[in-house]
Amino acid sequence: MNGNKNLIAVIGANLYGCLTAAKLSIKFPEKKIVIYDAGSKILQSFESVKLQKYQLNNGFHSIELPRAKELVNFLKNKIKVKIKFFPNIRKQIIQKHYIAEHQSLKNYPQELKKFYKKEKLKTKFYDHFFKSVSPNFKKIILKVAKRYNTEFKNVAHFFIPWFFPKEYVFDSNDEGEIFRNKVRSGKVIPSFAITSSGRVESLRKDFNNFFKKRKNIKLALNTGIFSENKKLKTTNKNFLNAGQVFICLPPFFLANNKLKKEITKNYKFLANVLIKLPKKYKTKEFTEIIFCSSKFPALGRITNTNNFVKSKDQLLQAELILSNPNDLKNINLKNNFFNELKKINPLIKKRDIKILDSKITRKVFYPDIKFINLFRNEVIKKLKKIKDKTFYNFFLGPINMSKQWKFSEKFLNLAK
Known about the structure:
The chain is α/β, with parallel strands linked by helices and about 425 residues long. Helix content is about 30%, strand content about 25%.
């Protein structure tokens, strides 16, 4: 094995990288762990956004339980994070119908039942799901899916099995799908965990404190990575010279420029909107609502902020996926949200709705499957050529906290 056996390099200061480094530092107190990241801070993707006077997560960030109970225990016991818990009550709106997630088809509104051709289905193929719905529902899904990508096959996982009754089972070995199938079948009652502040951004302080106490962890921020002559180097031209290298982010530094352009050419803009309703509408009826509404196709989710910020009024945080940042100015937010919110509570009046703030908060990429596969193959080829002992669990784009925990566990088992 090449490199310094007493040095382990972790590439990426996201949650995945921070968890990997923390675990390695505990398992190998005699070894030096260096975290490399091109950014100036750890956990940059967890930066909160300011909407009016409120600091909020940039999208829905929580830890699913019991799926990620080991992660929560590690954060509490090792990183010393203060955690609070709240119910997972996810609802959904399909066209004009407001329903509970994981509901049985027999309990669907009569009009909604017509969208589904079969009483039940179990398959690992997205196209089998799609063939099992009515032409009208296909048209609705295809229209809404364009908020992500013009080709439905590239974003089918955002709709299947989410907007299907519990009798429609996506048969997959993925740990997330296995967990969801247990929830859908009623075998597991889900809940959420979040930092006591309500913002995942506060994990940065907790991890920084942990790293300072561990004498064998070093942060190498503002330091990018690239490959040269079958070796990994930092942007300050130094070889990593590590006994083992664990890559905890999508390694674009291993892809050619043409492929990088293809992967990143289909991008959208995430907009966050803060809505205020009078306190008479304060509710614990839902944690979040996911949307498949052809009248307002840009709307992906509404989060009930009760578990994240304190307010006497009912604050709702909405996420829109837009093709152009100027679209946010052109949408009549009050009208559109009124039309959606009255599906939840028919008593809501338009005058009760106040749009407190709205802003573009992130650029989001939705690449074609074809280029994802090409990227995977390119990375595998490059890693085989690199002389350092280098490991990578393939992913491209955001992954939830449970998967980041499981990926870090795989790395921990590989480390020597």
